[in-house]
Amino acid sequence: MRALLYFLVGLIALAIATYSALYFLSPSTLVEAGISHERKQAGLELKQITVADHDIHYLTGGPENAPVLLMLHGYAANKDNWVRFAAQFSDRYRVLIPDLPGFGDSSRLTEQSYDINSQVERLQAFVDALKLPRFHLLGNSMGGMLSAAYSLEHPDKVLSLGLLNSAGVKEPELSPRSKAWAEGRNILLLESSEDLDRLFALAFNHPPAMPQIAKNYVAQKALEQKDFNEKVARDLTKQPYELDDKLGQIHTPSLVIWGDSDRIIDVSSAQVFEQGLPESTTIIMEDTGHLPMLERPKKTAKHYQQFLRTVTGKE
Fold first, then answer.
1. What gap in Å lies between CA 267 and CA 27, rounded to an integer?
2. pLDDT at 6
3. What secondary structure letter does DSSP report for 203?
4. Long-range CB contacts (< 8 A, 24+ apart) of 62-65?
5. Please, which residues have CB within 8 angstroms of residue 72's CB and are 6 or more apart in sequence?
6. Can you tell me the distance from the alpha carbon of 249 to that of 246, in angstroms, rounded to the nearest whole number?
7. 36: left (phi over 0), alpha (psi -120 to 50) or beta
8. CA separation for the pair 2, 45 (Å, rounded)
9. Residue 314's pLDDT is what?
10. Does residue 7 fall inside a structural domain?
11. Which candidate, 87, 96, 100, 99, places its Cα nearest to that of 40?
């Protein structure tokens, strides 16, 4: 018994020593282990495929033959924005969450453009490569604009459309982000590692609690990708994609979700989508910012589940 006790104490001491070493010597390894754990808890695994000159990293989970949910992240974001939301669906849907070309861990090619029309073509190449049947498509922010654009080009592939705080229309009332953009400032990008709290306050109404080690990791990644994100912003500006006059052509059942405290794309934009989409339902979430699926994943998932029930006629 005493030998067993010594053995267990030794294991605990080893675990503490390993954690301490990682914390000080390789903090990124520790954070990445946490990210992997959260993906696993959500029933998701990481895969990679090469399409349209890009290596696309994506998360997937759920029964192989189940209905497909394809989720698209926003500008300067990545696939992990959807993990906590996706956890509510991976038991009965086939979930797919790519890092869009130019973002996250997917390829960034300086000689190519990342305007919306080009991204629609790459998304179709991804869909073709995976031989997807018709699917439910949802996107946040820029990912919402891309989802709507894809629905216009490939209406036969999309069973339903989910738009969460979507870009793509003219805001009736300008958000703080839009006012800064009009002045020539892109406040979605970090200026330094100390700038993360400002960005979180912009994106969330209630920023998530995050240990400093994780904040440092997120800031480091954002700063590494800043130059390319600026290039993508230039691509989107040079070849703008405007949905205002096209929404009436989308006859796919659509759900519009918006956080009432969005400081990136003003909540007044929700009414543009509501009035423009022929078959839409709109939900305004109180006390919520630009990323409802990340800030309030369970509540957002409940709204989306109800929408899917009305579309499919089943749970």
1. 38
2. 40
3. H
4. 62/89, 62/90, 62/91, 62/92, 62/93, 62/94, 62/95, 63/92, 63/93, 63/94, 64/94, 65/94
5. 98, 100, 123, 137, 138, 139, 140, 143, 144, 146, 147
6. 6
7. alpha
8. 41
9. 56
10. no
11. 87
Question: Which CATH number fits the domain that encloses residue 50?
Answer: 3.40.50.1820
Reading the block at residue 85, the tokens are: 């939301």
| Pairwise CA distance, residues 26 & 216, whole Å | 12
On whether the CB atoms of residues 95 and 89 are closer than 8 A, the answer is yes
Strand order in the sheet with 280-285: 45-51, 54-61, 94-98, 68-72, 135-140, 158-164, 254-259, 280-285
Question: Does some domain include residue 71?
Answer: yes
pLDDT, average across residues 88-105: 98
Separation between Cα atoms, residue 15 and residue 65, nearest integer Å: 40
Is the CA virtual torsion 31, 36, 42, 48 positive or negative? positive
- Tokens 């229309």 label which residue? 169
For residue 231, name the pLDDT band (cuts at 50, 70, 90): very high
Nearest CA-CA partner of 56 in 109, 102, 87, 95: 102
Residue position matching structure tokens 């440092």: 216
Mean pLDDT for the chain?
Answer: 92
Alpha carbon distance, N-terminus to C-terminus of the chain? 52
Query: Residue 107 domain-assigned?
Result: yes
Q: What is the C-alpha separation between 222 and 218, in angstroms, rounded? A: 6
Residue 5, in any domain of the structure: no
Q: Please name the amino acid found at residue 31.
A: V
Answer for the pair 253, 288: CB distance below 8 angstroms, yes or no: no
**Domain range for 141:** 42-312
- Token pair recorded at residue 93: 């849907």
**Which residues have a Cβ under 8 Å from the Cβ of 275 and sit 6 or more positions away?**
none
